[in-house]
């Protein structure tokens, strides 16, 4: 066992033993029957070979899903692969480890030299991206348990207007930026905390989170895969990779007969119609140039807004939150029921030190806010440029960035050979 | 005819298939609806159950609390005990049944949803036609135009909102201004101690305040008379400078002299072992049998009495004053009262402490020449045996969220103070003569409430302290740290037990560790079944006794940790068990003293009730036993 694995296992053991500690604080009941209290036991860390098994299953599921999408062109095959993934990565592995959350592990490893990145987290992050770079988002189609659970309930999907898709499509970028910001500042693993489906996988969650997951599934009956399309931060990265994929799935295996069935089958609005340029060419180019010109402005405004938000954003960091609480309510320091205040007092740190630490973290949020806001401005600017640009298209084609490779369009396409 | 017949057969077959198809569709639809309704009902029940479980906490049942309160009033009511146990069991059953219901309900819901999904999917697969989306009218050019417009407006709106939210948010951290010590004092705020050397006290500037009775030997003043005493004379940090007035003798009492008396918390070594003989075992408060006297202590305090000769000392404090009381051990008369006031560095405003600790939790110490009292304010007062102030100083207000409770102990001419606070930890030795610092050792531990213990380790005295995370031994002559063992955690209240070269340290939610000390220190056994929250372990004659805050007294083999017996009482135990004459005296919080013969089998010698709550350990002297309840002081004996 290498050093990384040992450290990872130690950390896992500590985390897994937390419920055992909590259990011990529960007062022992009274027994008169001679019942002997069992010794407190701690759950063993997951065996190393099982960790590697997860990676192997991921690779196998990616390969099978990709084979069904690209080679076999089988919607049924993709669907059953996703059902398997739902059972394995969802209900058996209880939603952890997952590629979406791995973004945070990677970020933390970059910004915190003390954090040792588990190899499995790295592979779960990289493998789907690599596959997407060549074959499109087959991970979303057949491997992601979050996608699978939503796909199964998409009974009566409706098509959303393009403007709404574009506006809602900004959320994943924001979520990605926030997740990176909070992981980089060692504040929070936002994606894991607000995973709406992990409660179902574990049969255990806060009521609010179960409600959120239930709402996503309810909305998912009519708006297919709402989390994947309008929230998933990993989908942003997969989309970028998929944009450059050379062997992305094709709707039709040979010549398109322009029957439109595929366009009407896609619940994600990810099929581009045949189109020819409308309007005056010169005006269109001028519009495009205008939007290009405004990109730096969007970045500036976004950066300014992000930096201005650093104070409220930093409140979600527990050190900043505690410092602010103790500044406003110094009496909390003497409150034995205020656990955070008690822990701080017992740490021997002074209030000055706490405030200094909080200010340092807030400073990170300030610069992080500039980057986050600037990134969002860039995304808005580039999306507008894309919406202002034009490319003639003769056939129905998948939008490589947003296509989830589910295979519905292939299933509907009457051209089979 | 043949053709017609065949056509008829084909039509019939088609009709049959169609019928079957229709039936299948109908069946799938019925199953889907059934599963949906089932899931909905289960969901509603689950939510209701979840909310119910949130509201019902088995530990917070009002009915149970009421019964427990009744039991406090009638601790020997066995029927009530049975009722409490039955109700407790019932509530726990209900709680865990609810948990089981939620888990089972979750499985049922998953099953229902799965059936629903499969039924709908099957239904869709039976339909021959392709299902197309509920499409909307699309014009790529106009759609893009509209999308650009919405994106510009929504993004700009979002950024503007972010700017407004950012600029309107209050920057709380920038409002923080570090306060200087002077500012804190000026604002009547509590000064908090940093680990730093204790300042050398200044000479006496005025007469110490003593409230004495007319008769110097046997005071008969009442409490009310003391209240009429003159205003105290302001003094600075002070020490005995006038050799003629000082009654403090430089001679160091021998170990035997200490053992003849009861000079510290938990006896002459602070380990819970008393060397007294002919110790009383029981009394009857109702008839007054064996109750020699009882008096109300003017001010409240959780410190145990100490006795030297015929003088008994306790301290008390409230928001107004901190006082030391000297009682005549035989008659119970209040001989004198000394006030710990006008001490330089003493906070103008009392630090916040919890009710169950108070400002006078540390037990006093005496060497027969002077009496020393420490308060939750950090005020340390030394008086002679007549209550005349010898010296006084403030050690810095201990930053302690419950209140400082570590008791004092004396080694030769050194007053040992364990000062583990939220702002740093240290142990220090002050001169018993003038309060000057003899040595001071910084400790790498968190705040604690435990007291120092003096142990004889291979013929050499050793000072043993416990806190989170270290149990440590020190040379009481120099303060040098001799050994540490990292085995404690949490808010350590119990002091250590010691016998035969083994230190016993324990704390609730941590562990009970037996540490063999010598050239090295190592844990020889550990146990976690019963752990004390406040009461210190008692180790004597190969036995180890643990008293828990939930009322269990457990006896172990001190050598290997084998449990001999356990005994449970209705009331929890905060007072440390003490040993005298082959018996262990355990005072529970209900004020019931349980006298248990030390042995491998549990044997109750006697039980008596004070009639009021108690958390102080019994004290033995002059063939009598002294007990302190919440309000009164008792002398038991013949």
UniProtKB/TrEMBL annotation, chain A:
Gene Ontology cellular-component terms for this entry are: plasma membrane
The protein's matches in InterPro entries, at most eight in alphabetical order, are given as: 4Fe4S_Fe-S-bd (IPR017896), 4Fe4S_Fe_S_CS (IPR017900), Electron_Trans/Redox (IPR051684)
| UniProt xrefs under Pfam families | Fer4, Fer4_5
| Span of the signal peptide | 1-22
Gene3D superfamilies from the xrefs?
A: 3.30.70.20
Q: Keyword set for this entry? A: 4Fe-4S, Electron transport, Iron, Iron-sulfur, Membrane, Metal-binding, Signal, Transmembrane, Transmembrane helix, Transport
Q: Which residues cross the membrane?
A: 46-70, 82-103, 115-135, 167-185, 205-224, 291-311, 365-385
Name of the featured protein: 4Fe-4S binding domain-containing protein
From TrEMBL, chain B:
Mention any Pfam family matching this sequence.
Answer: PQQ_2
PANTHER family the record matches: CELL SURFACE PROTEIN, OUTER MEMBRANE PROTEIN ASSEMBLY FACTOR BAMB
Q: Where is the composition biased (Low complexity)?
A: 197-207
Biased segments, Acidic residues type: 221-231
Name the keywords, alphabetized. Membrane, Transmembrane, Transmembrane helix
For this UniProt entry, which segments traverse the membrane? Answer: 30-51, 100-120, 150-168
Q: Residue limits of the Pyrrolo-quinoline quinone repeat domain?
A: 289-442, 522-597
The protein's name in its UniProt record: Outer membrane protein assembly factor BamB, contains PQQ-like beta-propeller repeat
The record's listing under InterPro entries reads:
PQQ_b-propeller_rpt (IPR018391), PQQ_rpt_dom (IPR002372), Quinoprotein_ADH-like_sf (IPR011047), WD40/YVTN_repeat-like_dom_sf (IPR015943)
